[in-house]
Specification:
It contains 7 helices and 10 strands. By secondary structure, the protein is of the alpha/beta class. The strands form 3 sheets. A 6-stranded parallel β-sheet has the order 1-4-3-2-5-8, sandwiched between helices. Strands 6-7 form a two-stranded antiparallel sheet. It has a two-stranded antiparallel sheet with strand order 9-10. α6 packs antiparallel against α7. The protein is globular, with a radius of gyration of 16 Å.
Amino acid sequence: MKILDKIISADFESRTAVAIGCFDGVHIGHREVIKKILDKKKQGMTPVVFTFVRNPKSIFDKKCREIIPLNQKYKILSDMGVDVVYSIDFLSIKNLSPDEFVRDVLSGKLNAGYVSCGFNFRFGRGGRADSEDLKNICDLYGIEVEITQPVIYKNLTVSSTRIRKALDLGDIKSVSELLGRPFGADGENNCTE
């Protein structure tokens, strides 16, 4: 798997299928978003994950911890079959308008033909655009967008916030169930301040 820390053109031989999100725990909801780009491999598209080195929320809320370390996130994505990961510093794109993000990043650099995101995805300067806006803007560039609806587990939406709350309560069983794999240390701190 190729990991890029800057938004550069990776000279893709084909159009790409891009999953966009923080994917800070690669939990069962995140996996539904990512599985959709892996299915596009059959159509000759290169699966690409566009994510962040650290959760953008942690920039504004110091209490927001990472769920798993970055190297574990990369390993899970690689094991899933992702070919390329753009792991970007959020500050490098935070001032792009929604149109600039689609035009310059998704279309211009990533050569996206398909984009997968979650129902609660926000983007563009100030987080002013949502997943429906993404669909409308991408349509102008011939990019198909698929929005994954909430994944429900035990009558509640699976989310990183829910996992963090379970971690705060020491409920590792629930954390593991929401992640879809055992939660544990791999020699590094799973929750950084």
